[in-house]
Prior knowledge:
5-stranded antiparallel sheet; globular; alpha+beta; 5-stranded mixed sheet; 13 strands; Alpha-Beta Plaits; DNA polymerase, domain 1; 4 domains; 13 helices; MutS, DNA mismatch repair protein, domain I
Amino acid sequence: MNRIILHIDLDYFYAQVEEVLKPELKGKPVVVGADPKKGKGRGVVSTCSYEARKFGVHSGMPISIAYRKCPNCVFLPVNMDLYVEVSTRIMSIFRKHADMFELGGIDECYLDVSQKCRNYREAEALARKIKSELKEKEKLTCSIGIGPNKLIAKIAAGKHKPDGITVIKPEQVKEFLQKLSVRELMGVGPKTEAVLNQMNVFTIGQLAKISEYDLIGMFGKFGHVLYQEARGIDESPFIEEWEAKSMGRQITFEKDTKDRNLILDKLSEIISDTVKQLNREKLSYKTVTVKVRYEDFYTTSRAETLKMPHKDEKTVQEKARELVELFLHDERKIRLIGFSVSKLESKSA
């Protein structure tokens, strides 16, 4: 199916929300995070305005370093309750313009507009309408990428920030990716980039020349993902919410974690609980979905539909573990892990 996907990325979201509340901040270098002048400099930059970025400040940077780079920045504490409240209002605006909607995090989302828009010209017109409505109702800007799948739309959204629109049609994908850094691909962090760089692979175009066999040999299952992404292939479905006819659980860790054993143990626990519930209700499943939310609130999921219904725990444990492995490769810490089964059928059917 030829899809048309929009990825909407709210520009420097936390800092921009603060600017709306405090107009005097507009045009100043603003950093949202702990205030180093109040002895709380052990935190990190959550986000910062583009004026602050001119001094070399960026998200994830320790506050102490941000202060050294820009002592005249306006440092503000994180007001998560406010950002969640604003995000909730904004996402309801975006959702009404989509055939299908997937939340990507507190400041980003995907819209499938394949039915609503007949072509990319109409999709671009819709993007401009969305941006205008956001500006009118919330006084905020966003950047929008438009492409044939979620991967291309997300990368495109970052190309003309802030407040831009980038359209990549299917026939433009190969040329678009050719000279981009491998870091642009989902799940490629500094460590994976370093391994690829040692192989003289710096761009996505160079990565696309490596065989799938060699990539799997080097990176395991993630090698298959790299092979697909380097070619602009992303067939991941839209996960709007847990399906109405589904069953599952999710758990938020007390602290964001990269502890592989802890993550797998918690996933195993919620799978066992879900299978017990399935057995009580005499249901079998066909689709397995695993969801993660990273420390930066980016949320993503992967699903796989089996050829026939299953009811046992062993199958779903193995399949969920395969799916979560692709997330564990990412270098960000995980704050939430979720699991569900869907396409449920009565065992007696």
